[in-house]
Amino acid sequence: MKNHQEMKHYSEQEASSIKKVETERNTACYVLDPVEWGIHTNGTEAIKTTEGLNAALAYAKNAGYPEVFIPKGIYLIHGVGKNEFAPEREAGVKVPSHMKLTLDYEAELKVEPNSSKGYSCIYLREVENVSISGGILTGDLDEHVFSTDPIKTHEWGFGIYLHGSRNVSIENMKIRKFTGDCIFLGSVGVLGIDPDYAEPEKVTIRNCSLDGARRNNISITAGEHILVENNEITNAGTVKGTMPKAGIDIEGYGEGDIDYEVPCKIVVRGNFFRGNFRSSILNFNGYEVVIEGNHSDNTISYGNGTDTVISGNVLVRTDGTLTAIAGQRVSQGFDGNNVTIVGNIIKGFGSGIDARGKDVVVTGNTISHLGDTSGIGIDVWEAENIWVADNAVHRSQGLAYRVDSSKDVQLLNNKAFQSGRYAVEVDKSTEVILRGNVFNQCKGGIQITNRGKKDTQVLAEGNHIDFTGYTGQPAYAISFDKNSDVELKSNYIKGTRNVAIYGENTAGRAVKVADNEITASLSATAAIQIDGGQFGEFVGNRITFNRMATGGYGIILKNSENAIIAQNSIYSNTGHALSGSIVTEHSKATKVLNNLAVKGSMKLNTDTDMDRGNMVV
């Protein structure tokens, strides 16, 4: 019999040995032996293979291994669970908490072809501290048996289903051809109703290839602190597609102003998007979403999202179609979108940026080579409190900028170069300020209209409009219709070969044209021509002509009443006289005061006009 000292020594040795084994397991990788677990590696026996994989993962977990390695092979996965309502739940390969699952780069988990509306290849329910990397996940899209029942859309087949899990990373994987999504992030339960509600938290998807899912390559319906970084995301919705067919769709479930799932604090950075059917990224209703530094050939949309930044992305197409960056409206229950679109490069789309909703800043973007004559560089539509500043739109067939059916919009210090239509169109919009913009070699400058029942009210101040170098027949530098209130102030217009400022006015509308410089007009028929209206103000404008023949008019008013034309200077820089410097003979009661006319007579209504302090040279 061992004495007390021997027993004590034995116990210490045994404890040391056990501790050594535990330490080795805690730092070691369990290399799965398929034969030991009855797993087939030739793409057969889905149920046995799936059961074997799950048994091996459970063993490694219980034995204290932090990592499991799956070797090369084709592993057929039974992905359909027993839940008839949601067969994608509790199905496929289930990775336990505190586990790193590593697949050989030639290890493929392939879902067994089925006719189920949902399935999962890998399923994570409320686990934590899980890492999955390497290998290939393949869905059954090419072989799936789709039901003819319209209720069963079969859009719930997932590569990886994160069901309310936290601290999860998915890296260096190739995931493809699922009937739903390559990766789906969703909540357990419903917010505000289920006491056990749990959403994915702290999830990273990095350096993966996500290709050809039938619905979206990534869907995020719930989650917080989600990072999607440096992935290649391609061809969503292109085969047997079902909406929304996006590379990434951020879309929580809600009704009215009540959220039942909340996708929040999401960063989409440095990804490469190509060939996704409807859009690259759709932030339908996410909160605090940052979309930055991605390469895309399709639309990035802030949708109804709140607190979104779209920054530093490069969006390029070659067919002149689609809109590069888009929005929709304000989410119910909120007073604004609070969106910033900054520093993006857009080329070759049909339109550039579509700003909608409320509280949107669009600044520092470069847009070029838009291929559609109906396209628009930056379009503000049904929007309020919009700031568009320091953008450049050039070499495009359509409009550079448009404001339509909007309120409180400012376009400041923007550039338009070689636009095939007007640089700016404003329609059915109020509290619009166009200030400090530069428009060169565009067909037209600023067009202001009111084609609907709403008002239009615009201040255009300090803009630079230069037709020098434009080879086509230009439109007006600035024009407005009879249903608009306009103030045109301190604008610089050069080289026009049409009427520089043309407007139609009617009683009750305010028109003020003041301190503008219209210079180097070559063959312009008139510098300022207004038809109709009452109490218009035309003050302090400086107009010069470089005509090569006699003709042209400085300021012409037709069918107007009680206007004032004061302190303007109108002259020809050549030896050719103007047909008229100021012409009001077809208007009534015009006050013509202290104007200077050089080489151009004044033709006034001598019966009703006031002619004081004018000098004709």
UniProtKB/TrEMBL annotation:
SMART domains: PbH1. Residues 335-457, 477-595 form the Right handed beta helix domain. It comes from the Bacteria. Keywords: Repeat. Gene3D superfamilies: Single-stranded right-handed beta-helix, Pectin lyase-like. Pfam families: Beta_helix (PF13229). This is Right-handed parallel beta-helix repeat-containing protein.
